[in-house]
Amino acid sequence: MNKRTIVLTTEQYKEIIQTMREGFCGCRPNERIATALVLEGNLGLRISDILSLRLSDIVRDGDRYRLEITEQKTKKKRVFTVPLVIQQYIENYCLRNGIEKNEKIFDLTERAISKQLALVCDYLGFEGIGTHSFRKWYATEIYKNNGYDITLVQRLLQHSSAAITQRYIGIEPQRIEEAIEGHAQLL
């Protein structure tokens, strides 16, 4: 678990991706890195797993697409549905960039992505954000948009306990603050 990185807000996510795509004075646009971060934020995979992806890893399964990988960090096997919009996004990116079905989608290193992300975050004035912030954002959004189901997020991230998942997405401090605020009983 990467405790040094914070969870992105949706606004930060959008601003980082847009700035990465457009560039700014002293920093050229970088569609490849923006796309890798979009996939991390929308598939919930670690950046190391995003960098090993091939278009052929996403398999049509009836009327849906699925991705079957072995996570590099944990060596756990993971199979999950890839939303059609994400599959099309990846396929279009590969077509635009002449990436063959069995080639790695990204010819990048984690270090290159981290350096570019740091430049963009410095420019935007964001602190505590690293590549892992995109996975944490994914987890937090899934949690909020699915009835605050921590078990669902735990299973998606393949954490060994709900307590780890709560710490991972920073739910505990948030819940404590809400409980304190909600208890005010002035007479």
UniProtKB/TrEMBL annotation:
Keyword Transmembrane on entry: no
Residue stretches making up the Tyr recombinase domain: 3-181
Extent of the signal sequence: none
Keywords: DNA recombination
Stored Gene3D superfamilies: Intergrase catalytic core (1.10.443.10)
Xref: Pfam families: Phage_integrase
Protein name: Tyrosine-type recombinase/integrase
Transmembrane region(s): none
